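Figure S4 source data
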Amino acid sequence: MLDLLGDDPHLWDKPQLIRSAPGAGKTTLLRLFTPAALVNLHAFRDNADLKELYQRMATLGVINEGGPQLLGVFLSCARNYRILDDLDFEPARKQRLLFGLLNARIVLATLRASLQLRGLRYPEDLSRIKVSADAPTEIRAGEPGATSGVELHRWATALEENVCDAIDSFDGGELASLPGSDTLHSIGLMRPGVLTVDGRPVASHRLLLLDDVHHLTHGQRSLLLKTVADMRTGVGVWLAERFEALSTDEMLETGVTEGRDYDGEILIERFWRESANKFTNLLNSVADRRASAALTVEVTSLDSCLQASLDGTEWQGKYEATIPVIRDRVTKLSRESTLFHDWIEAQERQPGGIRDRAIGWRVLEILIYRELRNQQASFDFPLSPADLKEKTDSSIRAAAELFLAQEFRLPYYFGPKKLANLASWNIEQFMRLAGDEFEEVVASSLISKTPTLNAGRQDALLREASESFWTEIPRRARYGERVYQLLTSIGRFCRQRTYEENAPYDPGVTGIAISMKEREQLQSKEFLKKNPEYGLLADVLAAAIANNLLEAQLDRRVKGNTWMVLNLNRLLCVSYDLPLQYGGFKERPLRDLYVWMTAGYEPKKSLL
């Protein structure tokens, strides 16, 4: 997870936005820098499982042999801030109450974190915290003579209570007398030298960690982001939020906000897409550590428990049964022509195992369909085995393997690589899938003493997980029913295009694309005013992207045009027997997507 931070030397003295869909690891990343995590990491720094993490954190300057060197103050924005916008107060009063609550809670969280970092008790040891004359003016004015954590704690507690009382009273009162604050002055409390514990600075680095920013209202969030960006305190402030906080326009920019308030944004899913090997390594590490920690079974690696190939003897009979079926179809296809005679002869002599031969026959069938579509009737020259070899690439073999699995009910979704692909760059999604499989591994070990999960059972578990994932969409996403309708339509469309007999988009289609011009239309107020129905489509697409149900890629150049590609979340692909590779997509106009969203997709009849 630390790879997300890069090598920025200003991590500790500037604001940083961290965004993702639910379950990508935002909160985990933030909590890694809290006192509890750092104190434990230092205590167990010689543990083999933690050495790598300790070294990386030491490189960041967060920790050393002497102990933690960072004061990380964690605060969730999920706690009753939204109700302020429901009050019948003018905006200035609401703003004062919002900043009052935030300031009080930031101060209390800072005091708690300062003591935790030193292994002291909260609130019993507050007197060991001293406040310098450099404390923010607003705090010193609110608690004259405050020189220790005791007075500071009393001031912050009273402020929080007074703000809550003002909210409960439903009486705005005079603005000047209203409890609260006009800005986030509490961040100044974290400046160097302001707080000391037992006469020593609390830490070399300071970081305010604001989580769940998406729980604020749109106005509160905008105010907070602007206030933090405008402050020049020298204190790092990290703000983590879900994509759902962004506007439709921002989501159609794939989560990037326009403006110059922040130097950069960490978009977690995008980072992992661009660093796929790092993501796979992270998943393997997480899974292996969970497996090795199991008490009921001796397993050091989940990968080693997952059957990753169908070359074993238990699958030979199933593959062998497919060959005569496909051979018979190939013979009938080529009966009226000598065009494929040499290809069939070559396939009959193909060396290798049963599975390879079955895939070879399915490849041959696909290629014959392609030639029948392309070949002019006036030419009937036999195609050579060299032609067959040249046309047989990894993509068509992947399509043949998929077609075999779908037609003959063979496992397809199994093995560590596909398990990682099905995570769709989301750690929580991976842990859900890996957890289901590991439970089966444990059960298998207890019953048969063999901690191995065969390919068939893996496939069944992942199909069940996919169906469950689909059922969650209506309540998981904004415009949930519309999102579900659109995604099921995309799934049906992809399935039809994938399973065309000549496999024109091998190994298959797993997404759609709209032109960048049409994407811009979805962001145009003038266009949406003239075509209001597309406003709902824009909102639905944004909601699907925000929840990682569609993976967006901008400016993909194909056929002399640029496109916004929208790939289905890989776990959604399972229910439609789609491949997991990226790259297969079909361009569709906005009018088709609108129809799919409102009325559903009706598969067309086969073209052959």
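Figure S5 source data
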Amino acid sequence: MSKILPEKYRHPYDFNEKYEKSAVYFSMEFAIDQSLKIYSGGLGFLAGSHMRSAYDLKQNLIGIGILWKKGYYDQYRKEDLSMGSLFIDKNYSFLEDTNIRFTIKINNCDVWVKAYYLNPKTFGTVPMFFLSTDVPENDYLARSTTFKLYDSDPSAKIAQTMVLGLGGAKLLDALDYEPDIYHLNEAHAVSCVFHLYNKYKSVEKIKEKMVFTTHTPEEAGNEKHDINLLDKLSFFDGIPLDKVREITGIYDNTFNHTLVGLRLSHNANGVSKLHGEVSREMWKDFPGICPITHITNAQNKKYWVDPWLDEAFKAKDRAALISRKKRLKTKLFEVVADQTGKIFDPEVLTIVWARRFAEYKRPDLITRDLERFKNLLANTEQPVQIIFAGKPYPMDYNAIHIFDNLTYMSTNIKNMAVLVGHELKLSRQLKKGADVWLNNPRVTREASGTSGMTAAMNGAINFSTNDGWVREFKDLNKTQNSFVLPIVDHLLPTYQQDQMDLNNLYQMLENDILPLYYKKPEKWWDLVETSMKQIVPYFDSDRMVDEYYKKLYK
């Protein structure tokens, strides 16, 4: 096996000597560009920034993912304004067919996998490979394995993770490529360890190569399956169950994917300082796990920031900064008008809540005191505009219900908008056009979150509960750079936590944020400039990918 890639897939640069060790990054989703729809939310946004910064820093890294034929889904509004999901075939002329084909066993049947290549020069990423089972040699069931990101059928989703793990490891063999490091971004690709065991016959050799990033802040959230179901689906690459138990230390019937990732790696990390602490506490009683450090998530500034806004900020030209911010708001409001028929005002404070729609992120929290919410939006002395956007998981009917409720509520409120199509393009527009970036997950539930980082790069002020990366942003700096709610006792019943956070949110908004924006505009722009100054370099993914080499790949 070679230590270098075949010539046509090599990096278009000489490696920086700090990053010469070869590594492969496995992820179920990557948000690389608006045109490549193979991501659902934050995990993909993070992975996309990682690939871009690794290219910018000239690292010896490649990415392996899956080419989802129908993507995640296309979000639209039905005739009655409720949310709909479309699963449309996607085609990508910029991906190259490698003509590499091989089989993996799924449910004891041979399934053909083919690999596509994304040239680094297309979007400014490291070399990337995407796997697909959509080939004529497969029957429909096998072909459909790589149709939809995160299939709702449990067995189908397991099969998808096997394409990433076993298929990704087999792809490296087909390339005759022997990397030093296998980096699993979440536990989806953990099946690759069984291919590696068949290859090396040594758990120690696997541990030498494996590193693992966990994104889940609570034990219950880690994916688990019946070990016999996994065995039936050929997850263990032909290794007998007794040997699997010996390799993984799983002696009951519950196969915990994260636990196996932690046991078979030599290093692991949480994705914020707080999440690292939580993870060490969570796993400390489990024998055989590797050390868990933390590498705080970050985003690629070069991709996300508005260059003219950034130029005005660097030139310390406040007039140009304010002028560009208003222009960015106007451009966002063209999208609002197009989708909702509402005309927003660039002079008015604009709050944006936009990210994956999930119950613990509480997208509708600010609306739960309806009278207070309506009074807020009816205030003409200190007016407010609010925009919501995000994609619920298409089978998460509770989250879809919340999305629809917000849409119906907005029909009678002229300065409230709910947008569909929250993908990379709209996400950038929202961050560039927001004055206040609202983020209110229940504390301890958000491992990191990253959306507020790129909002801050674009002159938005973070308004958040004290969780994930925001805690570091606040604590790393003595000067105020954001509005962060006081921490409520997370052991209280959730409805009490929600009520306390809601009250604190309104107090801070009404007593601090609105008066600052309208009555002390100079101080508002001082705060904006402080936030823009303090968000980089720490929350730029160049720092993050450097730390992965220094802390995880060592």
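DSSP finds 21 helices and 19 strands in the chain. The mean pLDDT is 97.
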